[in-house]
Amino acid sequence: MENRIRFLFLNLPTLLLALAALPVHGDETIGGSLRTEPVVQPEIARREIIEPDIDEEDFEVGVFAGFLSVEDFGTSPVYGARLAYHVTESVFLEAALGTSTADKTSYELLSGNVQLLTDEERNFTYYNLSAGYNILPGEVFFGRNHAFNSQFYLVAGVGNTRFAGNDEFTVNVGAGYRLLLTDWLTLHLDARDHMFESDLLGEAKTTHNIELHGGLTIFF
Amino acid sequence: MRHDRVLQVLWLGWLLLLPLIAEAEEGDLRVEVAAPYIEMHTGPGYVYPVYQVAERGEWVEVLSRRTDWFQVRSHRGHLGWVHVEEMQQTLTENGEPLGVGSFTLDDFRKRNWEFGFLGGDLDGAAVLSAYGGYAFNENLSAELSLSQAVGNYSSEYLVDVNLLSQPFPTWRYSPFFTLGSGMINTKPNTTLVQTEDRTDSTAHVGIGLRAYMTRRFFLRAEFKHYTVFTSRDDNEDFNQWKIGFGFFF
User: Fold this and answer.
1) Residue B1 to chain A, least CA–CA distance (Å)
2) Secondary structure E strands in chain A
3) How far, in Å, CA of B152 to CA of A120, rounded?
4) Which residue from B1, B69, B60, B58 is spatially nearest to B28, judged by alpha carbons?
5) What is the pLDDT of residue A15?
6) A66, B116 in Cβ contact below 8 A?
7) What's CA B91's distance to the chain center, in Å?
8) pLDDT at A26
9) Measuring CA to CA, which residue among B201, B133, B208 is closest to residue B163?
């Protein structure tokens, strides 16, 4: 009996509190449990939004071969490689590397045995970084069924030329023609003037070294 | 024996090329046109004429992307180039808009790798350099750069490793501070009196600015002060400023 009374008194406040709280909370918990446990479980898989994996082809890499006229040193074959990045539909950036072997000056040819440069010094190697702008885009038609896109471009840049054992800061300007044989294979025709200061033949002057070349590149 | 070597090289080359070929064949992402129509140009540029359209509800196959242009194949088999703004009005097979866009300032902020070319002046000599960098987070990156300076009397080759801190990565014009060290190799010109090549170690400190332009492309300008630890009694000092452009990936 005593136990029961003690139980009642000790637990009454708790009981009252619980009872007082019940009506207020009661509605919510019932409503809440209804909301949290839907009758029908929707079978929707979570959608994964993935950026589509589309092949981007903004780079162009290739090789070229042609002729380089080294000022005072005749004309000789040149070959090299280029890598371009197309920033927009009009603008591209290009890095190129080319090498050639300079011929003899007319003085060396006429005087017989005179050698102004050693064989190693006749190596003409250049690299440059240029920016290009596509102008006059067009289409070229071969027969009734084939049309190829084409562009002329203007290009200018800076680089370095190693000739006669010296490094020379070189500015290049030029123009070219690009014919897209397929969506990824491109034919180039290019004309460049590589200009640098040289005092090789006594007086310092700006030499113009004109290069004409053709090349093939692929887009990737 | 030699034949074997050639065959090995060919086989290796083929194995390396195989994923590329597989990828090329795989690329048949199909999208449904949600705009009234999208215009297909003959080439990747606004200058090329529109020669086909794909109408609302038509499915086209996306083959490749060049700058902001996508090459697509219509269900009739016509190939054409569609601008990114029109591609954004197409839906994938899940019925969601095609998540393509131009690169934005936000992508620039989240870049991991960057590469660039700079040109400028090193104590009166023209300098050209190429660099690559990796960003550990938005603020801190490490870089490796190779430079060549061409002067009247000598040419110098520089290799530098530097850490770069960018305190305001969200800014379009974002300044940075850099600290690093490297090597310098000086090669006198052959037309002058013969002096020997020499290689010394260097340390440098610098400030600069990156300016986001468009797509994956930004401009960068920097000024660095170098100290060369020579084997002679005095150390040498020189300044270098450069300006150029970079890409990020």
Assistant:
1) 30
2) 55-56, 59-69, 75-86, 91-101, 123-142, 146-163, 166-180, 185-198, 205-219
3) 21
4) B60
5) 55
6) no
7) 30
8) 44
9) B133
Specify the 3-state DSSP secondary structure of A12: helix
Structure tokens at B242: 């450069």
Which positions in chain A touch B42 (Cβ < 8 Å)? 139, 147, 149
Both tokens assigned to B161: 């490793």
Tokens 């083959």 belong to B63
Q: Does A185 touch chain B (CB under 8 A)?
A: no
- Predicted structure pTM score: 0.73
Inspect the interface and report whether the beta carbons of B67 and A169 lie closer than 8 Å: no
- Where does the pLDDT of residue A176 fall: very low under 50, low under 70, confident under 90, or very high at 90 and above? very high
Asked whether A167 and B155 are in contact (CB, 8 A), the reply is yes
Identify the helix (H) or strand (E) that includes residue B159: strand B154-165
The beta-carbon neighbor of A58 closest among B23, B43, B66 is B66
Distance CA B122, CA A132 (A): 26
Cα A138 from chain centroid (whole Å): 23
Q: What are B98's two structure tokens? A: 């095609």
Could you give the CA distance from residue B237 to residue B203 in angstroms, rounded to a whole number?
10
Q: What is the pLDDT of residues B163-222, one digit of tens each?
A: 999 999 888 899 999 999 999 998 887 666 556 678 899 999 999 999 998 878 899 999
Confidence class of residue B90 from pLDDT cuts 50, 70 and 90? confident
Amino acid (one-letter) located at B117:
F
Span A93-144, pLDDT tens digits: 999 999 999 888 888 888 878 888 888 888 999 999 999 999 988 889 988 8
Residues from chain B that touch A137, judged by Cβ atoms under 8 A, are 43, 45, 47-48
| Angstrom distance (rounded) from CA B242 to CA A165 | 26
Whether the CB of A71 is below 8 Å from some CB of chain B: the reply is: no
